[in-house]
Amino acid sequence: MMNMMNNNLPSYNELPEVFAINLDSISAITLTGQEQIKYLQGQVTCDVDTLAQTKLLIGAHCNAKGKVFSAFRLLEREEKFFLLQPTSSIEQSLAELKKFAVFAKVEISQDTELAYLAIAGEQASAKMATLFQQVPDTLTPVIHENNTTLVYLAGNISRYIIIDKVDKLADISATFDFPVYDGALWDLLEISAGFPMLSQQYVAEYVPQMLNLQAIDGISFTKGCYLGQETVARMQYLGKNKRALFALTGKDMEANVGDIIEKKLGENWRKAGDVLAVYQASNMQTYIQGVLANDVDNSTALRIKTQDSALTIIPLPYKLSTTTE
Q1: 3-state class of 92 per DSSP?
Q2: pLDDT one-digit tens code per residue, 223-268
Q3: Rounded to whole angstroms, what are the CA distances from 19 to 119, 161, 191, 222?
Q4: Each residue's pLDDT tens digit, 61-76
Q5: Residue 240 has what pLDDT?
Q6: Which of 134, 183, 213, 219 is least crowded, fewest Cβ atoms below 10 Å from its Cβ?
Q7: Can you give the pTM of this predicted structure?
């Protein structure tokens, strides 16, 4: 019997041992064709030439000024590249990729054929093993079983993305004996993992280092030229970047994408940054992804503008590396 959607949204500390998420706000830009590797290599921050070995890459697509159109996870399925990302960041990134592809032997489009489902939690691996013959892991993060693609995302909470046609995912989820949530819960996991989520209003607003992409292996500094590469390299080598991505949490507050985050200076409040993403748990615990000055720390008093509830910084599962490997 198919598990009904659970409308209660848990806080981070309330997450079940295993749960599923309908990823209805996730989609992909796809590339196929004779020059798909060569073309994408000149457009994004990650080293596409290594995909055949690594199977999964994190990267960003930037404009000529190094501002990020989209942050994505790149994989290959049936000889086609998939740039998995929030649907909200696809429109402009897709248009820009198509603009420069007119003279390349490559076809670029938004995927409309597949659906995306996640299984996550401490017992996610055990549950995946009951559903599939082989389960992806850190060494083999992408596996194809018949027409189904399985993707493993490492982190404090194990996550698996299942990619297939809608009817196939419906058959899989009909066997679940654990909670199924809507896509909002994915935002909590991305916020906690420190993976940037760009809504339309923040497209082409930040360079990759402001979104911590250098800390999650989303930038190759050895691959050679790509669109925006000069700005990205200058930020890294000259230490010019003064902002970073943060995860924050607070209780009994209202927050929305686009809100201003303030910090206290003496008796006054001044702008500290912007809200990129928000997750509101049913118990009124709020989780926020924001871009702030990179010298903000736990001693900094923070709040959403015009609200009294305090925000506290949640440690991210990585360090803000300054290396250029």
Answers
A1: helix
A2: 989 999 999 999 888 878 999 999 999 999 999 999 999 999 999 9
A3: 6, 12, 17, 39
A4: 999 999 999 999 999 9
A5: 80
A6: 134
A7: 0.95
Instruction: Give the least confident one: 135-144, 223-232, 273-282.
Output: 223-232
E strand or H helix at 94, and its extent?
Answer: helix 90-99
**Closest by CA position to 209, among listed 189, 228, 187:** 228
For residue 8, count other CB atoms closer than 10 A to its CB: 10
CB 57 within 8 A of CB 46: yes
**SS3 (DSSP) at 187:** helix
CA distances from 36 to 32, 39, 43, 60, 283 (A): 6, 5, 11, 16, 46
What span, in angstroms and rounded, lies between the C-alpha atoms of 120 and 270?
A: 38
Which contiguous run of DSSP H or E holds residue 90? helix 90-99
